Amino acid sequence: MTHVKRTIGLVTAVLVLAVTGLAAQAQPQFGGAWTLDRSQSQFPAHGGNKAPSGAQNQTPSLVKLLVEQNGTNFKVTRSMARDDRERTYTQSFVADGSENTRQGHHGSTTVSKATLGGDRLVTQSTTTMPGKDGGDAKSFSRESTWTVSPDGRTLTINTVMHGPRGDRTMKTVYLKS
User: Fold this and answer.
1) Residue 96 DSSP symbol
2) In tens digits, what is the pLDDT along the chain, a chain of 177 residues?
3) CA spacing 20 to 30 A to 4: which of 19, 62, 120, 137?
4) Rounded to whole angstroms, how far apart are CA atoms 16 and 37?
5) CA–CA gap between residue 59 and residue 153 (Å, rounded)
């Protein structure tokens, strides 16, 4: 009887470890304060637009992300500073694959969704803007794939942007603050 109890205990322990491992694997943790590492990031060229003299790099000098994650619920606050100006933008979403539609400026509509699984978070959005004076509407889409390094210290966001002028890619790397 003691042998049977030990076997059942061992099987139970193995199952608990397996389920815990799968749960941890299925839901990566992105929460925390992150600061952009420019040296590892790659920004798109601005399609034929020449930067004014002395303005080769138009990205803000300081970019920080504050990511609050509670399961599949996310709140992401992005702060960008250049010179003496700072802008902050906050976005909340649920990474369950459901679509969210919101109205924007000048009659635009954005449909977005996010999914969380494996070792990544994938966000997708498509913005449609009405054409001027009854012309054709324009659509822009963006897909971003977020991954965290195994040590939890580096957040990488690979983004593909699709627009009327073609596709652009961007890789932003953030270090945990």
Assistant:
1) B
2) 565 555 565 444 444 444 444 444 557 899 999 999 999 999 987 654 444 444 444 566 789 999 999 999 999 999 999 888 999 999 999 999 999 999 988 889 999 999 998 899 999 999 999 988 877 889 999 999 999 999 999 999 999 999 988 999 999 999 999
3) 19
4) 38
5) 23
Distance (Å, whole) CA 60 – CA 18: 44
Rg of the chain taking only CA atoms, in angstroms: 22
> Which tokens belong to 176?
């945990």
Is the sign of the CA dihedral 42, 46, 47, 49 positive or negative? Answer: negative
CB 60 within 8 A of CB 80: yes
Specify the residue for token string 């990566």. 28
